[in-house]
Amino acid sequence: MIGSTRSTTRRVCAWLAVLVYLAVLGGFLLQSVAGDTALFPLSYFFKWDMFPSHNTRGLRRVAIGRTLSGKYVQLYPSPFEQFRSGVHRDLTRVDLDARGYYYRKSVEKTLKKCSAATLADPVTHAYLFEKSRPAKFNYPADLYEAWFGSPRPDRVSWRLVDEFDVAVSGAPSRAKPGEGK
After folding, report:
1. 87: in domain
2. 27 and 6 within one domain
3. Share in percent of the chain as helix, strand, coil (round to 5)
4. How confident is the model at residue 21 (pLDDT cuts 50, 70, 90)?
C-alpha cells in the first residue's frame, strides 16, 4: 500500500514537472515570436545570445508634416528637443526608445508648440517614419573600412510607422490612418 502511494506520488510529480516544463517552453516560444518580454518576463533569464541588451539595429525616427499649401516640413526631431545623446549628439529620447511608445506623443507635443507660429500655413497631416539599419553600419566610413576591409554599404530601410490628420487649430485628431482623406 505504501509502495503504490509512493509510485503514484512520483508519477504525479513527474507529470507536473513535464507540464511546467512545457508551459515554460511554450511561453518562451510565444515571447520569441511576439518579440516582447513583457508577455513573459521569465524569458529574460533564458537569453540565447551573449549580450542580451545590445541592440543589433540602429533606429532613427523622423516625422514629416504636410501643410495646408502642400509643403512638407520636418516635425521631429524638432528644435524643441533638449536631450541629445550618442557619439554625434544626434539621438533624441524617442530614438533611444526601441519600441517607440512616445513617438506619436512627442510629435503631437511639437505640433501644439509650433501651431501658433505657423498659423498662416498650418500642418494638416503628419507622417511618422522610422529609419532602420544594422548597427554595425553605424561606424564612420573610414573606421568601417579599416575593420572590415571593404567600403561601408548603404543598407538603410525606411518604414511608415503611423500617419494621422491634424486639426487646423494644431491639435491632432484621433482619426485612424487612411480615414477621412
Report:
1. yes
2. yes
3. 35, 25, 40
4. very high
